[in-house]
Amino acid sequence: MTIQRIAAIAGIFIATTFAWFILGTALQQRTNQQQSQLGGEVTDVWGPALRQLHPSAYYLTAASANGRKQIQPTLSKVTVGLNYEPKKRGLLWYRTYGAKFEAQYEITNPTPVTQTVYVRFELPGEKASFHDFSFDLGATGKREALPDHGAITQAISLEPGKSAPLAVAYHARGMDSWRYEFGDSARVRQFSLVMTTDFEEINFPVGTGSPTTRERAGGGWSLEWSYPDVISAPAIGMDMPKVLNAGPVASRISFFAPVSLLFFFTVLLILGMMKNANLHPVNYFFLAAGFFAFQLLFAYLVDLVPLMLSFVIASVVSLILVCGYVGAVGGRRLLVVAVPAQSAYMVLFSYSFFFDGLTGLTITIGAIATLALLMIATARVNWAEKLSKPAAKHPPPLPGAAMA
């Protein structure tokens, strides 16, 4: 193997890397285009991310600058059940869910005189629809409650120090996340919220607090936030579990594919030199094309068949192309190197993209394992001899030339 051949193989690697970059960019643009087109449709059909605000109340008084004195519920018991129901539209999955909300509040008149207290409850989401909705304030029975600008406001007369119960319940559907926020409430007293989920993968959005207690409940969790007396209480929220979309996975695999090809070429080149089975740069061109066939077939096969089945089919096709070609060109001595190398560097490496957070660790482990393997295998190799030009072979002398 000469330096010129190694330079030619490096050129083939760079050209294949450029082709992978084009493929990954095309897949990324296609995914972004579908997300922008279909995301709004899913929100209109199913519902937005639900953001429930803590109810507020006020009474009219001349002692306040704006003529209103804000008060907060003196007791709050909230329960919410989240039912994860991801929906597919086009080629993308969306993190949709159903929410069952029930809450019991107490509104208290803190003054020494009878007050007309106005209670305001904002609905979570302008485009959300609500089923089995109820809003009951006081002990006068159910009254018709119609929202005005996304909120319901009702008045009740309370004697000094007396309290009125407020019961709210509804079923709604949302997407991506659910939150409960306290708005302008500077201080929250006697508040508790119990959340139950039917999914195990829980993640609290940025800016929300962790639950006070948590325990397993069937196939999900039972979580409780308890705020006996808290100033600037953090919001409460839950992100829906992540879904595996084919477009982002395929584009990430394409962008990182040169790493797997680099490992494969390095192992095949060095071990091939040790076995005196040096392949021509043209052979490496076809091997690179066999690797590229995996990402290309996988990227467009997911439009027709499920994600994992597409991955298996593309992997098998590429293994047959690459390893079959290595066996035909280099024989068994290179085939025993190509099969485990491609299985590790292409199949297992690409499979790590199905799991968040494993890609970097996979690259690190693969690089260290490859380095250790090559260091052990080449410790006694004379590289000056392996990289030197082969001695020129002179043709044998013609018969009778010596006699002449």
CATH architecture of the largest domain: Sandwich
Helix content: 25-40%
Low-confidence stretches: none
User: C-alpha Rg, in Å?
Assistant: 34 Å
Secondary-structure content class: alpha+beta
Largest sheet: 7 strands, mixed
Number of domains: 2
What's the shape? Answer: elongated
The first-to-last residue Cα distance is 39 Å
**What is the mean predicted local confidence, pLDDT?**
85
CATH class type of the largest domain: Mainly Beta
Describe this structure in words.
This protein is an alpha+beta fold and 404 residues long. It folds into 2 domains: 172 residues, no CATH class; 192 residues, Sandwich (Immunoglobulin-like), CATH 2.60.40. Helices cover 40% and strands 29% of the residues. The chain has 7 helices and 16 strands. It has a 7-stranded mixed beta sheet, with no helix packed on it. A 4-stranded antiparallel beta sheet has the order 3-2-8-10, with no helix packed on it. α1 runs antiparallel to α2, α2 runs antiparallel to α3 and α3 runs antiparallel to α4.
Write the layout of secondary structure elements.
Layout: H1 3-45, E1 50-53, E2 56-60, E3 68-71, E4 75-84, E5 87-89, E6 92-94, E7 96-108, E8 115-122, E9 130-137, E10 151-158, E11 163-175, E12 177-181, E13 187-197, E14 213-217, E15 220-231, E16 236-239, H2 246-274, H3 281-301, H4 307-330, H5 332-351, H6 359-377, H7 383-386
Parallel strand pairs: 1-12, 4-13
Antiparallel strand pairs: 2-3, 2-8, 4-7, 5-6, 7-11, 8-10, 9-11, 12-16, 13-15, 14-15
Helix pairs in contact: 1-2, 1-3, 2-3, 2-5, 2-6, 3-4, 4-5
